[in-house]
Amino acid sequence: MAKMPTPTACLLPLLPFLLLLANFPPARPQLLRECGFSALYNFGDSMSDTGNALVQFDFAGSGQHPYGMSVGDEKPTGRFSDGYLLIDHIAESAGLPHCNPYLRKDLDHSKGANFAVAGVGLLSKAQRDKFGIHFKYSQSGLDQQLQWFVNFSKEAFPDESARKANYGSALFVLGGGGNDYGGYKKTPEERMTIIPYVIAALKDRIKTVIRHGARRIVAMGVYQGGCFSGFNETWLKHDQGPIVCDKEWNSHLDLHNKEVQLMVGDLQREFPHIHIAYGDVWDGVQWMFDHYHSLGLKHNSYRRCCGIKDHEECGQPDVPYCKDPWNYIWFDNFHFTGHAYQLIARKVIPWIHHDLDCANPNSTGLKSDAAGRIRQQQLWSLPFALSFFVLV
């Protein structure tokens, strides 16, 4: 009588496919709803600006078609994309409305406010003047956004107890830094010297929101700026294959992220009952880069949807744009498409959920290291894959 194969033996031939499925976690809508956030407050740059840039300075790009072309009735929303941003997906996951820009006083801010402005950095203007860092448009920084936040707090919550109750149950997201390095037109070695100042600025801003009552915070990292579509102008005809990036530039930004993670650890030890998550957009973007074709993106980082040549600014008259942004990673020179943000959110939001420990809101904020978190998150979908084969 032939010996029956063991269950393990049956699964072994399927292991490579199971591991492949583990890299493609299913979307988990409103995962952050478990956290019970009452509001969302965001600080940052164009990666999360939902319209402040249109008000603060004379730059109409994100207020013109084709920006917003994939949203509702195809009207520009002030976002630097054809669709919604990562911060929008975070809000949706938390069961909250999209975060309205603070400078739009005519909009509702009862569920939070977005203070992010495109083109700004973490360093103050005085620090940028010291280093000779110049921005093309806005000259403010995250310090200006925190001043807006202080003003907002006084207006919205004149009663201190009400303010602390609201902020204690809200989610605060702070990020940026890429513009600081991009504006520092020096050698790679010289750019390294400003990293401690950039990290210290982010740390100081986080401490400000903690002093105002924030208890759940996400410190966002930066993504692979060396993979900008604009860096690949000579490769425009090579539309398939692996993502090719400026390794020197990416290594600098990767070091910034490592310092952000160390800073998060320092803050957790200083404020053990505050939950602080590291917003790991780097690994989320890398996952998308590694699997972009399988995820339904046809064009790698050599092509962008809006504008063909580097000097063309999307949103300006006569600048060409694609009709199918869903197929692209990059919408313009420096910003992702709405589809790309949606994919990045599928990875980043579960990591944020894990680090904030929403199932245990009264627990200490101290968590395991980032590498352990990422390994755990990559494996969580394996039982889902196994159950699929049991069912079939």
UniProtKB/TrEMBL annotation:
InterPro entries: GDSL, SGNH_hydro_sf. Residues 1-29 form the signal peptide. GO terms for molecular function: hydrolase activity, acting on ester bonds. Keywords: Glycoprotein, Signal. It comes from the Eukaryota. The keyword Acetylation does not apply. This is GDSL esterase/lipase. Belongs to the 'GDSL' lipolytic enzyme family. SUPFAM superfamilies: SGNH hydrolase (SSF52266). Transmembrane segments: none annotated. The keyword Glycoprotein applies. It comes from Linum trigynum.
